[in-house]
């Protein structure tokens, strides 16, 4: 039975090249592709692939936020992050969002093929570089760092501080209410906050916004 794959990357040449490489394997089937995080969320909801492969740096909705949204709708969704990003906050954010695998784009073909098959079977796999980073991080416990907010997330956060709800934020920024909701969820996760008030308080303390 084929493994149905979905690819999300904002660089067409990377995405198309990846699709071509994956097509060399008889048990892989690429069922869809997306240019950005929002498109990926919508298409994955409709296509229900076995494994989602996604980059982290994407427009409209980054990979971590997109993955959170996908898994909120499909808790059993399997995901492999395939990215050039190897910063600690990106790695931890992706794993916390539910990624079962994390490979850097310099990985060999066979390493990529193996990761997909392992994840499709319900396993997990990290590239050696990423595993080493996580082990070093665990060996030196510290307060989780605040992840960098995107410009859009900063705009949403400022409106949160004004007490606006998702619908009002969406109207102010000219985006969909669903998109505003995704941004709010991502902000809470990045600031390690359990609610909006706590997120605003943390943001003020760290100088991210002013009231």
From TrEMBL:
Signal peptide start-end: none
CDD domains documented for this protein: LuxR_C_like, REC_NarL-like
Coiled-coil residues: none
GO BP terms: phosphorelay signal transduction system; regulation of DNA-templated transcription
SMART domains noted in UniProt: HTH_LUXR, REC
InterPro entries in UniProt: CheY-like_superfamily, NreC/VraR/RcsB-like_REC, Sig_transdc_resp-reg_C-effctor, Sig_transdc_resp-reg_receiver, Tscrpt_reg_LuxR_C, WalR-like
The keyword Ribosomal protein appears for this protein: no
Alphabetized UniProt keyword annotations: DNA-binding, Phosphoprotein
Boundaries of every HTH luxR-type domain copy: 142-207
Keyword DNA-binding on entry: yes
4-aspartylphosphate modified-residue sites: 55
GO MF terms held by the record: DNA binding
Pfam families: GerE, Response_reg
Domain Response regulatory span(s) in chain numbering: 4-120
Protein name: Two-component transcriptional response regulator, LuxR family
């Amino acid at each position: 039975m084929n493994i149905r794959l979905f690819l999300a990357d904002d660089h067409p040449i990377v995405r198309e090249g990846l699709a071509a490489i994956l097509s060399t394997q008889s048990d892989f089937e690429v069922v869809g592709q997306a240019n950005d995080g929002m498109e990926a969320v919508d298409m994955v909801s409709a296509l229900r692939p076995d494994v989602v492969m996604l980059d982290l740096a994407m427009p409209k909705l980054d990979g971590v936020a997109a993955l959170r949204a996908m898994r909120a709708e499909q808790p059993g969704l399997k995901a492999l992050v395939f990215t050039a990003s190897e910063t600690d906050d990106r790695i931890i954010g992706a794993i916390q969002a539910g990624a079962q695998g994390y490979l850097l784009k310099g990985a060999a073909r066979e390493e990529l093929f193996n990761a997909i098959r392992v994840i499709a079977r319900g396993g997990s796999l990290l590239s050696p570089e990423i595993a080493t980073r996580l082990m070093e991080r665990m060996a030196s416990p510290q307060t989780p760092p605040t992840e960098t907010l995107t410009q859009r997330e900063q705009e949403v956060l400022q409106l949160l501080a004004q007490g606006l709800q998702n619908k009002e934020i969406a109207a102010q920024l000219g985006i969909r209410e669903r998109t505003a909701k995704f941004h709010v969820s991502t902000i809470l996760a990045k600031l390690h906050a359990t609610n909006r008030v706590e997120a605003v308080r943390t943001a003020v303390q760290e100088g991210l916004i002013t009231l």
